[in-house]
Every structure is written in C-alpha cells, then in structure tokens.
Amino acid sequence: MIRYALQCEKDHEFDGWFPSSEGFDAQVAAGDVRCPHCGSPNVRKALMAPSIGKSTGKAASKDAAASTPAEMAQKMSMMMLALRKHVEENCDYVGDKFAEEARRIHYGESEHRDIYGEATPDEARELIEEGVEVAPLPVVPSRQSN
Question: pTM above the 0.70 mark?
Fold first, then answer.
C-alpha cells in the first residue's frame, strides 16, 4: 500500500491509501477519489516528505535497527538515483524550456505528458504561484575514484 498526501482544487489537504501508483491513477480517472472537505473530484498528489522509519525496540526490523548514519545515507543516495533514473526513462526531457512547456501543459495548450528539464529558482517559484505542479529532481553527485 502507498500513502499519498493529496490536495483538491480548493487546496484542501488530506491523505489517501492506494494499492499502487497505477491504482491511484485509475481511481482518480474514475472519479472515485474525492476531497473529504468539499467533495471535489479534482484531486492531485501533494508534495510530501519521505517517510523514514525509526527503530523502536522489538518492532523494528533487524535491517533498520542495524543501520548506521553512513548506511542510511547510502540508502537515501540509492533511492534518489532510482528516482532520477525513473524520471529520465519515463518522462520527456525539455531542457531549458521546462517552465514554458510546463505552462503549456497546465493551461491545456499542449498535450499532457510527464516532462523534466531545467528551470531557474524564479521560474520554479512563478510556476508554483500559478498552480503548476513542479518538484525538484534530486541531483545525485557522481562518484570520484581515488
């Protein structure tokens, strides 16, 4: 199960549990996901912080209990690398035209598709102020050999 932080068109925030990302997409497309505050079916995923477990005695797994800060940093780095790889393999790269193309998609001037590219901090701020959903893609530093 996946827990998503959700938000409706009126910016009401709530959580939802789904069997998978595809399950979420299917339920939203069918109009089955509605805001519990206002009933709006116009629901989207909101930004959320990753859930990082804390070891709490017997309930914690041996793997989590044995994790050192260096091991946790390595796991986070691998997760960021996997996210970046997923985006690069499944989204269209639009380079420095990201802000322009994101607006076109948002306003229905271009066909909806998932994109990634570069934007300045000012461009990103303007997109967010316009209600365009954007999120930074993690930068994974390249390893240097000794």
Answer: no
